[in-house]
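Researcher: We plan to redesign the surface later, but first we want a full-length starting point. Tokens attached.
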């Protein structure tokens, strides 16, 4: 994934070993049941010590074709660059033999059996698959004998998520994964922060947060996005990410999203540490520090808090079915239904006012939502409205 050969020579053992990622990260042989048993013992060790669960990195990479067959190539039109940047030859393969293998599911079932020995435990798996991401997430979380939830890269790519694109992803997942559970994110430690990636203004950032926190499933928020942080521009000599060092400057790696959280506007290193941190604090981040935003009721941080609280109070947003009313490049509206509760949601994802067509029935604006949407039929740029069925 990070470029170069997947095989590394080990002089002590006089053998090659395979690695999907860095050479410091050898792959394990999941076809060997003793290896699986050892991993399950490690999981049980930590569960006995009180951890609440596990995030399983690249969970669809565990098993490979037993004969280590080559992958076929992708055509140019099939290359997406979601899992790996397009400058990396890895992106030009159809990864049918080295990941997302059916053998993976049997191990996940064994892992879930260990998890179920303990109370109130959860798992979240990371699925990196450009061609079958949603299908893999559905397979890995369906029923009660696999993972609790998975997230993929559908909204972590450089592609700007139009209203139509969001609707297509949600409808597709709902269709193929009725008893599965997704976990959605717009930013994480592997991608450029979405404020930068999608060139969002503060108003647009808030509108997209409203979309994210209205999706059925669980949501991951990445440190600093609640402050509205942009991607930091890290000088080459300060880089630590081997991925960025190898492909710089065409791909600068992931250090720009991994700079320290800024807690204090006037603190040393943004209040993150008195010692020199692993990565430098971006100067432009300091003015957005937590303590500066705490004092401003209209800050991005406080908007995040209000939107999170609103989501928690509306089960239809978390668990409700998703039925599209309208979806195009700059607009998305849908009806969310959970039991007898129905909620109409509409998001103007553009810089122009938009007329909202309400579904049939009587709807009342939900004034608990953190948006000023007093007009019933006209939604201002980068605004959202939430209406409850009477």
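Model: Full-length starting sequence:
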């Amino acid at each position: 994934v990070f470029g170069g050969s997947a095989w590394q020579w080990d002089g002590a053992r006089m053998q090659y070993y395979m690695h999907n990622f860095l050479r410091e990260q050898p792959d394990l042989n999941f076809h060997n049941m003793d290896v699986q048993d050892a991993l399950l013992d490690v999981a049980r060790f930590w569960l006995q010590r009180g951890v609440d669960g596990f995030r399983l990195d690249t969970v669809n990479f565990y098993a490979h074709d037993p004969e280590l067959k080559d992958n076929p190539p992708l055509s140019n039109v099939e290359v997406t660059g979601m899992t790996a940047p397009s400058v990396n030859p890895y992106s030009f393969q159809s990864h049918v033999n080295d990941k997302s293998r059916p053998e993976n599911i049997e191990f996940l079932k064994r892992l879930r059996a260990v998890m179920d020995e303990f109370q109130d435990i959860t798992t979240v798996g990371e699925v990196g698959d450009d061609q079958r991401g949603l299908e893999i997430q559905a397979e890995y979380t369906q029923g009660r004998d696999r993972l609790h939830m998975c997230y993929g890269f559908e909204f972590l790519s450089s592609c700007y998520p139009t209203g139509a694109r969001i609707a297509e992803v949600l409808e597709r997942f709902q269709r193929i994964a009725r008893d599965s559970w997704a976990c959605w994110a717009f930013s994480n430690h592997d991608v450029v922060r979405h404020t930068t990636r999608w060139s969002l203004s503060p108003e647009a950032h808030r509108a997209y947060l409203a979309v994210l926190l209205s999706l059925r499933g669980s949501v991951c928020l990445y440190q600093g996005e609640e402050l509205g942080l942009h991607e930091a521009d890290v000088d080459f000599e300060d880089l630590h990410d081997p991925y960025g060092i190898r492909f710089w400057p065409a791909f600068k790696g992931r250090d720009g999203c991994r700079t320290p959280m800024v807690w204090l506007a006037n603190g040393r290193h943004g209040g993150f540490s008195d010692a020199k941190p692993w990565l430098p604090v971006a100067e432009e981040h300091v003015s957005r520090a937590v303590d500066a935003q705490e004092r401003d009721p209209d800050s991005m941080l406080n908007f995040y808090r209000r939107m999170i609280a609103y989501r928690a109070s509306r089960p239809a947003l978390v668990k409700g079915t998703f039925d599209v009313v309208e979806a195009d490049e700059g607009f998305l509206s849908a009806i969310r239904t959970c039991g007898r509760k129905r909620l109409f949601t509409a998001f103007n994802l553009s810089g122009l006012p938009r007329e909202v067509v309400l579904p049939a029935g009587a709807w009342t604006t939900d004034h608990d939502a953190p948006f000023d949407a007093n007009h019933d039929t006209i939604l201002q740029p980068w605004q959202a409205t939430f209406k409850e069925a009477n």
